[in-house]
Write a structure and sequence with these properties.
The chain is of the alpha+beta class. The protein is built from eight helices and 20 strands. The protein folds into three domains: 4-69, Uridine Diphospho-n-acetylenolpyruvylglucosamine Reductase, domain 2; 74-186, Uridine Diphospho-n-acetylenolpyruvylglucosamine Reductase, domain 3, CATH 3.30.465.10; 234-337, Alpha-Beta Complex (Uridine Diphospho-n-acetylenolpyruvylglucosamine Reductase, domain 1), CATH 3.90.78.10. 25% of the residues lie in helices and 28% in strands. Helix 4 packs across helix 5 (212-226). Bound molecules: uridine-diphosphate-2(N-acetylglucosaminyl) butyric acid.
């Protein structure tokens, strides 16, 4: 276990922001976590745990010990006629894990193909796409308390999952290092293709028989057509959440903006498509210096090359103000700002 000093984080965040970490260490084994906890660099500094760095915007150098979670391993821990429990180490790349499951014909994660990041970060914000969230297949996770070093198992209920939310983003922020996540996956398939874009893409692909592979491929095609590849252009996926409003507010908005894109959540609330709101402000494809709003999906902010975190942050503030001014709706950032 080596602790590096003054390390660039440019290649450890998908926005590609060039800031440095005061201290930096990679966690490869459970034992190395206990070793790191005993060091003076750990005990006398703040800590930041990094997975794939795909949901973070750095706005300054990190005056902390950055721990890159690199724990690896996928294990089948239980199997019955209908389901399997698969335990995946937190440092595995999410998409590679999804591909592993599809290869074994374990269903449930195919709609979540190609989401950037690591497995350990997936429960943090309850990642979701195309009608599926990880809470749907989540079974439990193991984590280590960052002060005491004790191991704790969290079940689904204890994670307090919500839309892009969990207890690890709120009450227990920075208090646990997630070491593994266990998913309950299906051996007998139940496909979820209700999300409009998937059906359309399956038609375009001319798929005669549904399978985990074809659904995954449809999702990959949609994502590739709309979302920028972080290896080519820096971004962290959706920068904002889709805001929830009451039925009353929705109806007022609908009167003024008849083509507003919204989804009923329950009898009294609606979720608005933030991408639509931003686009209607004339900001889709907007660029200020090296920071911009993606041309094909206005919910995604991009780094055209050498943007600073503050330039991207300022652009996000401008978007918040513009949406508030035009629609009276408050957007909330989904990406963690550091
Ligand atoms: N729309 C626009 N203009 C835009 C973008 C979207 O008008 O620039 C409208 C379109 O009408 C579209 C609707 O908004 O039909 C919804 O767009 P999309 O299907 O692209 O989904 P989203 O609501 O913008 C959410 C997630 C994405 C996820 C997609 C697909 C959030 C914050 N984002 O985006 O997740 O891939 O649904 O399920 O919930 C991420 O979290 O990083 C992410 C990419």
């Amino acid at each position: 276990m080596t602790i590096l000093y003054n390390t660039s984080l440019k290649s450890y965040n998908t926005f590609g922001i060039d800031v440095s970490a005061k201290y930096f260490a990679t966690i490869d084994t459970l034992i190395s976590i206990q070793e790191i906890i005993r060091t003076k660099e750990y005990q006398s500094n703040e800590r930041l745990i990094l997975g794939g760095g795909s949901n973070i915007l750095f706005t300054k150098n990190v005056d902390a010990l950055v721990l890159k979670n690199n724990l690896k391993g996928i294990e089948l821990i239980h199997e019955n006629e209908d389901t399997v429990l698969v335990k995946c180490a937190a440092g595995e790349v999410w998409h590679q894990f999804v591909m592993w499951c599809i290869d074994k014909n374990y269903g449930g994660l195919e709609n979540l193909s190609l989401i950037p990041g690591c497995v350990g970060a997936s429960p943090m914000q309850n990642i979701g796409a195309y009608g599926v969230e990880i809470k749907d297949t989540f079974y439990e996770l193991e984590a280590i308390h960052t002060s005491t070093g004790e191991t704790r198992t969290f079940n689904k209920f204890e994670c307090e999952f919500g839309y892009r939310e969990s207890i690890f983003k709120r009450k227990l922020k920075n208090q646990y290092l997630i070491t593994s996540v266990t998913f309950q996956l299906l051996k007998k398939q139940h496909y979820n293709i209700e999300y409009g874009a998937i059906k359309q893409e399956l038609d375009v692909m001319n798929v005669s028989e549904l399978s985990l592979k074809t659904i995954s491929q449809a999702v990959i095609n949609i994502r590739n057509s709309k979302l920028p590849n972080p290896n080519e252009i820096g971004n962290a996926g959706s920068f904002f959440k889709n805001p929830e409003v009451s039925q009353k507010i929705y109806e007022t908005l609908k009167t003024n903006f008849s083509n507003i894109v919204a989804y009923p959540l329950d009898n009294s609330n609606y979720k608005l498509a933030a991408g639509w709101l931003i686009e209607q402000c004339g900001l889709k494809g907007f660029r200020k210096g090296e920071a911009g709003v993606h041309q094909k999906q206005a919910l995604v902010l991009v780094n055209y090359g050498s943007a600073t975190g503050n330039e991207i942050y300022d652009l996000s503030s401008y978007i918040l103000e513009s949406v508030k001014l035009k629609f009276g709706v408050d957007l909330e950032r989904e990406v963690n700002i550091f």
